[in-house]
Amino acid sequence: MNINDKSPAGEVATMAEVSEVVKKLRERAKELLASGAVKMIIGYGDGYSKGKTVPIFITKPEDADRLIFDARCQNSLSMYLKTAEIKAKGKIGIVVKGCDARAINVLLLENQVKRENLHILGMVCEGVGDPTQDKCGWCMANTPPVYDDLFGEPIPNKGWNEETFAEVLKLEAMSPAELWKFWTEQFDKCIKCYACRQACPICTCTRCITDKNQPQWVPTSPHSEGNYHWNLTRAFHLAGRCVGCNACHNACPMDIPLKLINWKLIKVVYDDYNFIAGMDSATLPPMETYKVGEETDFIK
Amino acid sequence: MVRIGVFICHCGKNIARTVDCAKVAEAASQWPGVEYAVDYKYMCSDPGQNLIKDAIKQHNLTGIVISACSPKMHEATFRKAAKSAGINPFLCECANIREHCSWVHDNMDVATPKAIDIIHMMVEKVRYNHPLDPIKVPVTKRALVVGGGISGIQAALDIADGGCEVIMVERAPSIGGHMSQLSETFPTLDCSQCILTPKMTAVKQHPNIKLMTYSEVDEVRGFVGNFTVKIRRKARYVIENMCIGCADCIAACVFKKPKFPDEFNEGLGLRKPVYIPFPQAVPQVACIDPNTCLQLTTGKCKMTCAAACPKECIDFKMVDTFEEVQVGAIILATGYKLFDPKRIPNYGYGKFDNVYTSLEIERMVSASGPTEGQVLLKNGQNPKSVAIIHCVGSRDTKTNAWCSKVCCMYSLKLAHLIKHSTGAEIFNFYIDIRTPGKSYEEFYDKVLEDNVNFIRGRAAKVVDWDLQPLEDGKLVVHAEDTLMGRRRRIPVDMVILSVGMEPQSDAGKLSHIANCSVSSEGWFLERHPKLAPVHTMTDGVYIAGACQGPKDIPECVAQASATAAQALILFSSDELTREPTIAKVDEMNCIGCFLCEKVCPFSAIEHHEIKDRNGNVIRVVSRVNEGLCQGCGPCAAICPSNCISIAGITEEQVYAQIGAV
Fold first, then answer.
1. DSSP string for residues in B509-547
2. For the segment B87-146, what is each residue's pLDDT rounded down to a tens digit?
3. What is the pLDDT of residue B14?
4. CB spacing of B589 vs A207 below 8 angstroms
5. CA of B320 vs chain A CAs: smallest distance (Å)
6. Cα separation of B59 and B410, whole Å?
7. Element (H or E) spanning B201, and its range?
8. Distance to chain B for A241, nearest Cα, Å
9. What ipTM did this prediction achieve?
């Protein structure tokens, strides 16, 4: 008796219903597991209720038929790569969208995963999540920048323009007083559950700075000061590293628009250094490099 | 239980004028943990230091704060006093209430509370101070000398004679540098080759010196006493230790006659693609120029040179190789380059036949030069009149602002030599004649008696069109004679441009490799222009000779010997003592992202493998090399999980300091 059977949407999809791309994905997953090339594949499976997916960790070839891929698959599976349990597995396969693959590039650059321990099943993605929310309007990687197998026809990058950053520009147009009011209202909602941190694929520290209490730089209580401390520290730690997958934004139970902070930082890094995080695993982010003769307007 | 002593210095009136020291002492004595607080006129004086020592013993203090001048000034003094009183010197901290407070304020009502705040911060910091012990690192008693000119040669010989090993790296096929190209040296007119060649041979034969010619320094890692240097041995296409310098290959080259400009003779002579730079070259080993050799450029040559070699040591498949050496000190003696007179087109260098640079004339005057000591025009005749234009590319804001120091003297020397060998009429165009130096002015007097003409004024231009029969077929130098107050046109057969010295064009690159700095002009920068002229900002890296600025031979030799003395001082002990204020990684919490490695300017971050009891690697974490770390702190700043702290400035201490205000 499969637990998925209880939900109409959660039934294991039959071959007749699935797209050609997913069929190919399942076939490849079967091969990889049967040959022992990978110990496990992390992918998307049907969720318990309609419109939701769950991460599935499959080790047997016959379970490969549970793999799905469609617009519901908006969560980032790359975040599992930072966990000790997954690292201990050895070589694994993982189903990724472009944004997730960019997160993997960041992890590779920062020595958090080994490339030889990954078999990346890259999915060409035309955008996921609620289409009315335009979650993926600013996507820079419809085709994953790193993969071992690619499923779907590659789509060229759209590139960024003013429109991409429309929501950030709205924030930038605010006066400091308005901004302060806006963010104070938003951060006051924070309950310090740290779901943003847990969902983030590149928040990799095993001992977060907020958990360090000798000395306690970041207050842990959910009051205004502590909330500002936490949310801004988290954002600054992502400067030049955030790939804009919006995992934190989606994970927040209090609906704080975290993506706005991230995208503001992404814009600053892009404007000032022409750098986009995670497009490859070799280019060092601007915050981690110093070139002699580098021009700055903040060091006088 | 902490027992802190606070000592407030009046610094005569320097501090007491704007800070009420007695009130500060009173305030400090009220803080929890402060056992003793006192003010005194001069803490750095002997009675002042005794006051500190007695208080430490009497009150059994566990930490002291000296509130006085900048720690740059007297931290060492007070730490020494603390040590002699029996506590760890790193339990003593300085609160700067002079430069940071009394000197910048004139109102006592403002300065006094500020001084109290500054001292309070330091008291809170000292609360968390731990005893630290100096780090000892071993010293490799071997020096690297970069550059084989007279400076490098002198430094290498001195260190080698002092009993330590030397590795000399020279990028040309032979050592000798610019000095080997000179004819006679001012003011004594002894032959340059005659005094240099014995030293070159001594380098080759010295058991303590390893000579690497045709090589360059690619990378320097490490720190004082413990440098690892990567040296690129450029492919010379002749196996160096087999070649006997017989020159059979040169005779056998498919180019029957020399065809290519000879670098040693400044292009006045010709050489073949396979060559020995000059007869006295050290080492006496042939070298093949990859830019002109037929086999190396086209791959289609009969390779007669290889066939002729009795030792079969010509190898066209040779590639650049790399060698890593361990040294304790590095001496940079990379010399200078000549100003390129084409940058001042009005002097016509490269346009008119008989306009030469001074170094070209040095080669002509040299007995071993391309004309065997004769000064000749292009048509093979001796000049009847010669103009020597001083300060070409020196003392000129359009090119180089500095005085190149040697040009006046060598111009006088060339005037003297040419006058005596050809009897030509000589005109010196000068701005000022600068002859400071032992016997230099006397040499000038001698040349004045030689009937040489001196025209005070910078030459404007050299032209070849004549206005009167006298100027027919001659070069005409235009100049303003500032003593006569008239413009003059002097027709001459030959013009010599006294070109100045410039920094080597790749000095900046080498300064990055060796982690020292260059001035905005490109000369290597000394630590202090007067009191540390051969030190750089990096411990264990020294500079000798003209790479630091224009110099003549005696100055280069003196400076080279000074660097040798510095290296030998370093090598006189087996261990170096270093400050213990360095970074430390919390290996339990390190996630091994190695951002610290990327920002470390001293390459002090190492990868450390944490293994289980079976030897399997569980995690790779960052670890700080105690010898390399300078305690500068970017690693601590970038670590996302705050796993790195600097001894003596830990996070707890910084946090406590912030909390105190």
1. HHHHHTT--B-TTSPBPPSBTTTBTTB-SSTTEEE-GGG
2. 999 999 999 999 999 999 999 999 999 999 999 999 999 999 999 998 888 999 999 999
3. 95
4. yes
5. 27
6. 71
7. helix B192-205
8. 12
9. 0.83
* B591: chain A residues, CB-CB within 8 Å: 112, 204-206
Mutate which: A113, A206, A213, A216, vs B, most B CBs within 10 A: A206
Q: What is the pLDDT of residues B616-658, one digit of tens each?
A: 888 899 999 888 888 889 999 999 888 999 999 998 999 999 9
Mean of per-residue pLDDT scores for chain B: 94
Sorted by sequence, the CB contacts under 8 Å of residue A62 that are 6+ apart come out as none
The verdict on B619 touching A (C-beta cutoff 8 Å) is no
A197-233 confidence digits (pLDDT tens): 999 999 999 899 898 888 888 888 889 899 999 999 9
Q: Hunting for tokens 């070589």 — which residue is that?
A: A91
Both tokens of residue A285? 């982010």
pLDDT for the residue numbered B321: 96
All domains of chain B in start order, with CATH = 4-127 (3.40.50), 142-234+320-335+513-571 (3.50.50.60), 248-308 (no CATH), 338-502 (3.50.50.60), 583-659 (3.30.70.20)
CA B363 to chain centroid = 28
Band the pLDDT of B78: cuts 50, 70, 90.
very high
Query: Looking at beta carbons, which residues of chain B come within 8 Å of A214?
Result: 651-652
CB atoms within 10 A of CB B527: 18
Would you give the end-to-end CA distance of chain A in angstroms? 69
Tell me, what's the pLDDT at A136? 78
φ and ψ at B63, to 5 degrees? -170, 145
- B637 contacts on A by Cβ (under 8 Å): none
**Structure tokens given for B238:** 């002749």
Percent of chain B with pLDDT over 70: 100
Is the separation of the CB atoms in A250 and A74 below 8 Å?
yes
According to the model, what pLDDT value does residue A221 have?
87
Beta bridge partners of B302: none
The Cα–Cα gap between B545 and A178 comes to 63
Q: Which stretch of DSSP H or E encloses residue B146?
A: strand B142-146
Q: Shortest CB distance from A205 goes to which of B599, B641, B651?
A: B641
- State whether residue B382 is helix, strand or coil: coil
When pLDDT is averaged across residues B179-207 and rounded to a whole number, the result is 95
| Rg for chain A, CA atoms, rounded | 20
